[in-house]
Amino acid sequence: MGLGKTLQAIAVVSCVRESWPVLVLAPSALRLHWASMIQQWMNIPSSEILVVLSQCSGSNKGGFKIVPSNTKKSIHLDGVFNIVSYDTVPKLQDLLMASTFKVVIADESHFLKNAQAKRTSASLPLLQKAQYVILLSGTPALSRPIELFKQLEALHPTVYKNVHEYGNRYCKGGIFGVYQGASNHEELHSLIKATVMIRRLKKDVLSELPQKRRQQVFLNLGEKEMRQVNALFRELEVIKGKGKSAQSEEEANSLKFAEKSLISKIYTASAEAKIPAVLDYLGTMVEANCKFLIFAHHQSMIDSIHEYLLKKKVGCIRIDGSTPSALRQDLVTDFQEKEIIKAAVLSIRAGGVGLTLTAASTVIFAELSWTPGDLIQAEDRVHRIGQVSSVNVCYLLANDTVDDIIWDVVQSKLDNLGQMLDGQEKSLEVSTNQSHSSPSKQKTLDSFIKRCNNSPQDPSKKHCRD
């Protein structure tokens, strides 16, 4: 996450030229970024850098060889460096397996965390077939140890060969589903460090990087905005009560599914409730006239923020899941180089990976993500190589909403991931000086439901193997 993993991978690959050509697997948004980095650091013609794109629109200032993935004609991966997105791998699986790629780089390898995903099942044989494999990720597991397994299997299948053995040892304790928990952290950390992982932290690599300061800003939501959220929490209380008295396993599972579905609705309702207060806070940022990033998850929140900034005539860029990957780098360049562009409106998932936005030093989260890795990745669009100012990260939270639950879930997951990957506990540490005072926050879902029930009744490495 801004520590130079791309450059390190290019350096490693330059040492095994006899095994070229090279295959690079990357998220869609990072394909042209990889091409640019290879062109910058390797002494090879840009025409020998092949990029497979589904759409050929957008700029190709580097002169790379662009191959459309949606053509009916046969595709030839004949570049010295061949860059393919994870989503394209299943479509090109036969062609890729027939090719002789002895060197494979998989960037943001946590994209392979889901064993059932087509991109995972299609990518794994490519990785296991290669002589040299480099997996790159600042957050190889985003939430829990099971997300590591396919990456570990790709690198060292003789050690990590049985998902059930791995799951029973390292993934106990989950509530929603098998192998969703975490156990034996220290042992797993020692094992992966001894076999496949090189883990470098910012404090080790970038000793002069300015500090990152997190702050919780508590929003005041009106009774009208909170009505739907409170109603959903009371409904959730009823379902949890039925779950405790379930007469059969089938009934208990059905109620657990209903509980999970209702929490998702509360997540959405909380976003809707926060919109007016988030926009009010944004007014202070607009008046400050400084560059900032603002992240959100729900489309309604992203749309409201973007429309607000346009209404205020604030120069801004927007990157979400609908932004073509070929245009994202141009938007990033505009933000980095144009003083008139003050804000970047980003979705946590689409805008939180592979972008360098160090022209800003303020990051705002209008919403939380259930996945701690997504939050850390998003923060580090600013806190990375090239940053010269202290970074301020503001989490806009609202009491008595889903934020109370997610914050504690994220902290718990980070604790597990920190012990597993770094051998030490980790958390989203925040400054003790808050912009707004906060009443005591509940630590469990049950205690929140209890409080709602008393209220007025208003109608979610890198390693080189040889």
Automatic annotation (TrEMBL):
Helicase ATP-binding domain residues: 1-158
Q: Which GO terms describe its cellular component?
A: nuclear replication fork
- Compositionally biased intervals (Polar residues): 429-442
Q: Where is this region: Disordered?
A: 425-445
Question: In this protein, which residues make up the domain named Helicase C-terminal?
Answer: 278-429
Pfam families per UniProt = Helicase_C, SNF2-rel_dom
Q: Which GO molecular function, any one, fits this protein according to its record?
A: helicase activity
Query: What keywords sit in the KW lines?
Result: ATP-binding, Helicase, Hydrolase, Nucleotide-binding
* CDD domains for this protein: SF2_C_SNF (cd18793)
Q: Which InterPro entries match?
A: Helicase_ATP-bd (IPR014001), Helicase_C-like (IPR001650), P-loop_NTPase (IPR027417), SNF2-like_sf (IPR038718), SNF2/RAD54-like_C (IPR049730), SNF2_N (IPR000330)
- Which terms does the UniProt entry file under GO BP? DNA repair; replication fork processing
Q: Which Gene3D superfamilies does the UniProt entry name for this protein?
A: P-loop containing nucleotide triphosphate hydrolases, Tandem AAA-ATPase domain
PANTHER family documented for this protein: DNA ANNEALING HELICASE AND ENDONUCLEASE ZRANB3, DNA ANNEALING HELICASE AND ENDONUCLEASE ZRANB3 FAMILY MEMBER
Q: What is this protein called?
A: Putative SWI/SNF-related matrix-associated actin-dependent regulator of chromatin-like
Q: Which species is the source of this protein? A: Solanum chacoense (Chaco potato)
What are the top taxonomic ranks of the organism?
A: Eukaryota, Viridiplantae, Streptophyta, Embryophyta, Tracheophyta
